[in-house]
């Protein structure tokens, strides 16, 4: 596989710190260190990492800050038998693979579709804010002249877009976005079900079965516009009821007029043909 492009940053300790500080909090947790070391070909023992971590957490805060980090990295170089530059390289490779799997939704696909890429770019747009317009980004995508991007193409694109940014932060932002998206989808689905019952709408049995089973639905629940649409449907339903009531009243009044014959059934049937209940 093609090697991923290396960042321009020549300060390897700064690069390592930024890679591990995925939330940008300015400190490194022990869990972040474990994750970083898991990407090595021969990771150090967790107990050795923990002891080294505790030794350099001089203020006892439970985190390692930038002042403590350089000494820690030098100790980690001895434990792992790797220079910090190589440690960063292994972690970046592993993180890109993880991001690719997230964007392909763990399907094992060897390529990312244009739709999947769109979801990804929208999710990380806060990181790209002020640097590129969506037109700029899609212009970069078009140069590949393909409907899908393979792993190498995806890594090349992300590296260009995130110049100076940490790939770890991208993964964190994307995961947060997907969790939020999933929660919104679940909420919209529940609201749709509730509105369906209140409005008296009858969805096809197959769709209702999918709702009951929690399966993926053809109907889009990914956007909260469904809530507003259901309100509109309920409002239209009430208007239709009012119109039918008025029509019945008019029919009743007309039927009492002498010499006038009104076929109520045909009127109601015609009304039904025009889409009114």
Task: Give a quick set of tags describing it.
65% helix, mainly alpha, two-stranded antiparallel sheet, 13 helices
Model description:
With 277 residues, this protein is an all-alpha fold. 65% of the residues lie in helices and 2% in strands. The protein has 13 helices and two strands. It has helices at residues 12-20, 30-38, 46-56, 66-80, 84-103, 114-123, 125-128, 134-142, 151-161, 167-199, 205-213, 225-255, 264-273; strands spanning 111-113, 148-150. It has a two-stranded antiparallel sheet. Helix 3 packs antiparallel against helix 4. The chain is elongated. The N and C termini lie far apart (62 Å).
Quick structural gist:
The chain is mainly alpha-helical and 277 residues long. The chain has helices at residues 12-20, 30-38, 46-56, 66-80, 84-103, 114-123, 125-128, 134-142, 151-161, 167-199, 205-213, 225-255, 264-273, and strands at residues 111-113, 148-150.
Strand content: under 5%
Please give the order of strands in the largest beta sheet: 1-2
The N- to C-terminal Cα distance equals 62 Å
Number of β-strand runs = 2
Shape annotation: elongated
Order of SSEs: HHHHHEHHHEHHHHH
Structural class: mainly alpha
Mean pLDDT: 74
Largest sheet: 2 strands, antiparallel
Helix content: 55-70%
Rg (CA only)? 30 Å
**Low-confidence region ranges:** 1-10, 206-224, 259-264
Q: How many H/I helices?
A: 13
